[in-house]
Automatic annotation (TrEMBL), chains A, B:
InterPro entries: ATPase_NBD, ROK, ROK_cs. SUPFAM superfamilies: Actin-like ATPase domain. Belongs to the ROK (NagC/XylR) family. It comes from the Bacteria. Keywords: Kinase, Transferase. Gene3D superfamilies: 3.30.420.40. One of its GO terms (molecular function) is kinase activity. The keyword Magnesium does not apply. The lineage of its organism: Bacteria, Pseudomonadati, Bacteroidota, Chitinophagia, Chitinophagales. It holds the Pfam family ROK. This is Glucokinase. The keyword Nucleotidyltransferase does not apply.
Amino acid sequence: MSQQLAVGIDIGGTNTVFGIVDRRGNILCDGKMSTKAHEEVTTFLEELHGHLSKLIEQVGGAANIKGIGVGAPNGNYYTGNIEYAPNLKWKGIIPLASMLQDLFNIPTLLTNDANAAAIGEMTYGAARGIRDFIMITLGTGVGSGIVANGQLIYGHDGFAGELGHIIVIPGGRLHPGTGAHGSLESYASATGVTNTAIEFLQTRTDDSILRNYPAEEINSKVIFDAAQKGDVLALEVYAYTGKVLGEALANFVMFSSPEAIILFGGLTKAGDLIMKPVREHMEKNLLPIFQNKVKLLFSELKESDAAILGASALAWEMKD
Amino acid sequence: MSQQLAVGIDIGGTNTVFGIVDRRGNILCDGKMSTKAHEEVTTFLEELHGHLSKLIEQVGGAANIKGIGVGAPNGNYYTGNIEYAPNLKWKGIIPLASMLQDLFNIPTLLTNDANAAAIGEMTYGAARGIRDFIMITLGTGVGSGIVANGQLIYGHDGFAGELGHIIVIPGGRLHPGTGAHGSLESYASATGVTNTAIEFLQTRTDDSILRNYPAEEINSKVIFDAAQKGDVLALEVYAYTGKVLGEALANFVMFSSPEAIILFGGLTKAGDLIMKPVREHMEKNLLPIFQNKVKLLFSELKESDAAILGASALAWEMKD
């Protein structure tokens, strides 16, 4: 039984993870290496080639591998290039898919990490059997992948689905990375939650556990712990974040009318603290024809596995 | 040569237009009747059947007709139903496509009017050959149709693409029809332009031709005429409307990354008065990877023909 395995590679600004996956989403073997240690993509690929070649041998050689899927920041599905990724050291346009394909002689597809997450969820996770959904990744930043009619929406240039950069509060909080004011990522990311807490601490006078920390030590973990202890200010940070995110989700629903929105990443660990206001404000802002229809789901993939699984799922979409 | 013609029917709150169209978008014959004169859909269909049967005879009978396409408010492509259309007298769910199919014994598809406009533009107009675009209709209201990968996005329930109801200014102007605050339709429609002018007249003190009119006589035509004469306040109404619309379009681009946005309807008659600020504020709010890529186009269909053409184009999408 040949070609029943896929390679998944997720390239992050700090680290790269990779693994070999079967059709059911079992990771047979995997590994990790530094991305940022490599000033040049060529030495990065040399190291990756060394690691991955060993894993491929372990599973019986390249004849068993259907394809390589890569999730990477600013990854363009159509061209296979990483284009001007702000958080990578390799500047300009990197033809990563064709470089990998040449190295391993295995067909390779590439997309951005949030699109890969959406395909992973459709293949192995919460979106199995769902033809219309939106994946939102709530981590350091906010990423997204949009699926309609069972297909990922790449847009005319391969860059569709940048929902983290949609302006939700015109003239709102500055996003230092993009210069935009009021984008979703400025509120619904780990950084956003931290900035909301700092703003609340500055503009309000009520007591809070968070006042015991200097501003530079406030982060999403500290805020979560305070909220768990019933700290009112911390709870209201989540309520506010949930309101902004819920209002944004309502707008997204009126765009593509998905059956489900699937949430993934650090912020989802706050559970009902964030999900209750998200749901409330999403429903409140929907036209009646959309109300009480959209499922809000959490990812069903283990966070540690999701990046490899999502990338690997690209391989199953390849034509034989 | 049989089945080379299609019937297009556009049902509006006031009137219904219908016609027979060839594959190149020539309207061979057409007609018009009142919608609102009919309290019941049954008498509406009787009258429509009478008119259309004659037209179908004129073109050689039903054997020449590939299908009937219908554009209707709250039209659901999947079910063929009109569902709870606020501006029609027929309440609840009306299975219009199957009723027409039974009457004429011709296959019938139905969708909402803005989706029909998008398909019309793709078949006969400015979107020929474009696989990813967004159609925005700027009339009394704001409608939209979204095409990705060459397919109209209907969403899981058939109601995708309600971009007029996306909230662009949270807490902004009340939309009396929906109760929402700050939806695009409250600003970028004929009514929106009128309300912006009335607000400007109330909150500003500068001279304006528009001050010669009582508030109830201010409308988009009066504002356009004043702007044409160089009236500063009227010009700023367009600048403001264009800003709100441009910011909304930037958000839409970051969703589906279309090759083009096609604008249709009354507001587009203001030409550069509106298009210059639209383009400026769209570009300003896009991430760099999206800038200077998206074409802003006007519809290429004559406004009087577009409704029939758009609806008729549904018929060419039917499987043989």
